[in-house]
Amino acid sequence: MAERFPTSQNEIESVPTQLSGMSLQEDAADQLAQLVQHEASGTQYNVSGGQTIIGEQTNVIGDTSQAQSSTQGPQQRSSSVNFNLEECQAELKQYYIDEMGKVNLLPWVPDAVADMESIFVDLELVKQESNFRSSEGVKRLESNEDLISLKTVQGQRVNRVIVLGDAGSGKSTMAANIAYRWAGLTEDSQSPLSKFKLVFLISLHEIQDNKVSLVDLIFQLILPEDSQVSKEGLKSYITSNAKDVLLLIDGMDEDSCGILKVRSNEITKALHNRKLRSCCVILTTRPHRIGELGEHLRHYTQVKLSGFSLENIFKYIKMFFKEDTDKNDTLIQKLKQGPHILALAAIPVLLLMICLLWEGQCSLPSQKTQLYKNTLNHMWKRYKSKEGNNCPLDDEEMTDEMKSLVCKLGKVALYGIDRENEQVVFSEREFGIEIFNLGCQVGIITRERLRARMTVKESVTFLYKSFQDFCAGMYLAELLDSNQSEFDKVLRNLYVQRDDEYMLHSPYILDFCCGIQPRTSHILFKQTLSHSLECPALQGSVINISVHLSNIFESQLSYAELVSLCDNTDIRLGIKSVSYREVPYLLYLLKLSLESSSRHDGFILSKLVAIQIEIGNEPWLPTLLEFTPNLNMLDIFLGKKLDGNFSTTSQ
Q: What is the sign of the dihedral through the CA atoms of 57, 60, 65 and 67?
């Protein structure tokens, strides 16, 4: 829960290069296993010049780009297996047009659909260079297609990209849009996507078998049951022409069957850069799961998905209210007046909720927790009206019946999390028939049909991952009131320790829990301080409290309550990576300071000694400096440094 700030440039640069020699050893082991396997079947091999030659196919240990240029030339390598590329392209494109061409604006309203082209708004993507903490270390991308046009410092094509985004930030929609754009390309298109002959979009939460091969998965999830494509031909083509293939792997954090833990699986090998190295792979995940790539992260260029820019927030609202200019204008004006709600609007799923609530009642909360409460109340009202019960409901508070449903759903969601996995796919049996049916009728959960091998399996997922987190957070808050020991046990399970750092499986769960039961903020903050003061390795270090800012804001703790958290304690606090999304949290602390009749040395701002900010010279920064007398490091990147009597760094 506490972590030490980097102390030197060498320390920062050494992290991603550990164990850098392992992948070559793994490749050699793979080649050896392949030799043994084919030797047993009587296949003849010639081994020469560091290459293992199998018939007409060439697999190179090391850098494949040179081998391709020397043995392949400008022509694609031939294959003895019959494969109709045009037929495969046609089947893929038809699938993407049919499945991705329509967007359900309100998933709990089946007929509320719109064309992908008419509603999609590009998200803000920021490439993080190796020197990621300076303004020169980032690059804003113009569109999703720029993800496949990235270059290394040496000018070579980047073949491994990982897109990091919080729950609801639009990762899955972005991946679907890339596949949809490829499907709609014409022969004379100048799009960067046109260089790919085949594009495969795979959602990890749909995989039911962690031993399934890539080609089998393509046939299970994408190609039609009566496909005319040869399975062996497709496998041969992908292997022989990997540079012409784009692989979109959505939801590393939603790998419910553990496929990424099976090192022998070829999908895992591709993600670990041990197979299909010239294939372009775009992987999406929530930030807290990035560490699971381990040493293989060094192969990836990291791109942060920041949600909507201010311009695109307003563009989305205009598209949503295209037939109601009054609603459009008043909502935009409302967002301009409040930084708290504007920060929420940058997250696509939350902006959808904001538009939905504004359409119905023209009022908005400032906390994320209340926004989800209001949205679920809206869904509950719709369900009740269909049942013929139009009784008025309080927009701010849930009925007991609704709370009971959410908590029962949340119990299943919460206990689906352990230190290794986070369950996102459930069975009807886990919920029980009564809760399952009610949850589906309201629209919080939904049934999916997944193909696995020759069978069709039915599974259950939450409408959005953030809905799953909200339900889990509400149940956790109920545990705090009813069963303190069980609450403590579950809370420990939500954290996973990597080295000296504690990371949350799902930060949203605790945000929601704090918004529902403010006492949770006290417990979380005290635990962080206790761990930092008791752990010898962390004693004297600056304690990073970034994760607690959203907890405090959601719980709306008072000045006196915040003073009690760290009063009479000799600690030094720091805040890492404050983006515009976290600005409202700092502004809330400043607001409490300004409203207080007297300053107290025990207030959080008085304990701050280091802040790292991802924004420019904002007008509120001088006020922040006034209330942080012990601040001795202010690091500003993606913007200009401030002048003042304090030190700044830009490592």
A: negative
